[in-house]
Every structure is written in C-alpha cells, then in structure tokens.
Amino acid sequence: MSDSKGYRAPTKLIHGKHSTEKWDYNYHVVPPKTASTTFRLASVLRGKEGFIDFGAPWGQGATKPTYIYDRLTEPSTGMLEEVYVQAEGGDFACAFSCGMAAISASLMAVSKAGDNVVAHPTMYGCTYSLLVNQLPRFGITPKLVNCSDLDAVAAALDENTSAVYLETPANPTLECIDIAAVRKVIDAHNAKVGPERKVRLIVDNTFHTFWGQRPLQLGADIVVCSLTKGVGGFGVDMGGMIVGPKDLDLTVRLIRKDFGGVLPPSSAWNFQVYGIPTMPIRLTQQAASAMKIAQYLESNPLVGKVNYPGLESYPGKEIAKRQMTTPNGDFFPGSMIYFELAGDYEQASKRCHQLINHIADNAYSITLAVSLGMTKTLVEAPGLMTHSALDQCAQEKAGIHPGAVRLSIGLEDVSDLLADLERAFSTVE
Ligand SMILES: Cc1ncc(COP(=O)(O)O)c(C=O)c1O
Predict the structure, then answer these.
(1) Is 409 a member of any domain?
(2) What is the domain range of residue 390?
C-alpha cells in the first residue's frame, strides 16, 4: 500500500494515511461512514479484551482497536484523529464534541484540586468563564497573567501551577504571543521542580488552525482546537480536538469516556471528508481577502485601530512571521480581523452599533453572527457577544474596546465584501 512519505501537506490532507488500522476500507475511495453506537462482540472474552485494550497504557494496547461502544472510540473518529496527528504533529489526537469539551478536558487532564493555571487574559469568553467560574469549584484556580510579559509569567509559576494556557492569535484582539519564548520560561521553571510538577504549555490553535500555525513545533505540549471553525469550514458541525504527548493519551481518553463529550461519527466524517481536505484552498483564499479588507479598514478615518497579522502596523509582526506559517513555509496572516471604531469610548461604542446594525439590516455578503472560519463572512461585537462573560474590568484587561468589531472573512468575492462594508460605514456618524 502506498504511503504519504515525501508528499506535500495539501495532498496529505486529502489522502490522510491512505491505509488505516482503524478500519479496512481498501476498496473505498472515500472512507465509509459508520453509524452504529454499539458493536457486536463475538464472545465475552472479546468484550473483556476491548475494555482492557482501551485502558492499556500507551503503546501496549492492541494495534487494531476492539470496538465496543462509541463513547470509548469508534472508526470514523479514529480516522479523523489519525489525520490530525499527521497534520498537527504530536503523539496522539483525541476528538471531542466541541472546542469547549476539548479545552476543559485538556485542563482537567493536567490539573487536580489545589493547582493553578496561568492564563493570558485575552481569550474566548467561554474559556474565560471555564477558568474563572467553573474550575475554581473543583479547586483549580486561574492566575490571569499577560503572557507577553515573560517576567510576569516566570513570577506567576509556582509549585502548584499545572499549566500555562494561551490563545495565539488571541480571540478577539488577535494579539500574538511568542510560544517559543513562553516555552523557555516554563523550561527554566520545570528544571527546578520534580517531574510530577512539570508545567505544561497548552495553546488554543482555533484561529489559525494547523494550516496556519503548528504550536507543538514551537514549544507547546498540548494543542486544543475548535473544529467548529476553520477546520470544519462550512459551519455545519461542532467539534474539538486535543493533540498532545503520549503520557497524556490515556488520561485524555478516559476523561472523554467518563465525562462524555464525544464527537458524533457523522461529524468526524464531515471533518475528514469535506473540512480538512479543503482547508489549504479555503484558508489561503480567505487570508488573501482578509488582507485587502484590513488594508481598506486601516485607510478608513472612522476606524481607530486595526489588528491583522498581515499589516505592517501589526504589533506582533516579527513573532507572527516566525510563528504563523503554513506547512509549505508561507506566512499565513489568517482570516480574522479585529478593529475598533474611532472616537472616545462612548462615540466608538455608538459607531460600532451603527455599523453592525446597518450590516445586519442591509448587507447581503456579511452576516451578523458569532462563530468564525466559515465560507460565509461573519461580523460581531465581541464586547457584547462572544466575550460578554468578561465584565468591563476583565474586558479592559483583555484589551477589548467598547467600539470593537470582529470580522471572520469567508469565500465571497472580496469586492462584494468591501462594497457592503463601505455602504455600512457611509451610515456611521
Ligand atoms: C478561540 C476559541 N476557542 C474555543 C472555542 C470554543 O469552540 P466550540 O464553540 O467548538 O466549543 C471558540 C469558539 O468560538 C474559540 O473562538
């Protein structure tokens, strides 16, 4: 059977491993879709073996999985995980029902009661709520620390720190954190503590996806990602993924088994068959349009600030050039744009409402909706929507302005997007 060695990344995303241990489908061009929540067990012994194999330490389990029940593992999800390991790197990938299920599982896998998690304050609103509202109920406390300030990170790490958690580029401001630099700070700390107290670096790669950035190669221990966004691309399935080192493989799978955030096989199949193979072409086109729109916004006097990694004015430009690259080695500025309307807080906020409401009422090519990474261009006001879990003080700390707008650029003709934006701006006072 042919293998993928020597082939380029877009080709591998289409063909995956080509042959899989997860299922014998040598005569299918497209992997078959499974739809059975439970599996016939030929004997009690086979049932018993299935449970033993599932719980075996990494590398000692059976090479061919014995399927028992979908919540443990099943072929479609297994095949998606294989493709993901190939694309993102790492020793294992474990798929979840959504990004939040993956994020919460990653933090639970490395933490216990009494631990703290150092996290960059700018992050997706529900992740913030998980850290600030949910995990403390289980004895895990957040320390919100600016991860661009390496001295502050070093000072925050203590013998009870289980992880440093960050998004880069961060949602919604697109702030860029230097993954390799944070890694060095963690390594210096880890050299002084026992192996059981080693701090792990967890990076949320939802905004750029493995097509635009591979955090494991830059020094992260664990990558989490919402597949609902750029990986799925069409906005029809929710999903999440953890990719990490082999010592966490079983822990993460047991968390998925016992907490239950499993990905439906039909969604795994959609990600593998539609989402992932089309990522290079979709994301390249979306980034090209985003660049043009960011340039337009930067030249617009009603806009006070634009953050887009492709612009020369982007504050993290040097880090971005090193960090945000495709597997082919090209710089990938992404499909997300953050901008702030000009004026003082009150005026900027009023203008933000005017602009977005006009788009909601009139624009054909831009939709007011949360989520991102889709074929359709979406606009939202992060302070009022995706990041409303952060109170005003937390929003200020996270750099979210009252006049902030987040755009996720889709696959429409860019001249239509620009025309809809221009029409909306013409109504802003
Ligand atoms: C950066 C980031 N991480 C995680 C999530 C959560 O993903 P999901 O909605 O699939 O749970 C989101 C959702 O918008 C996000 O933007």
Answers:
(1) yes
(2) 279-425
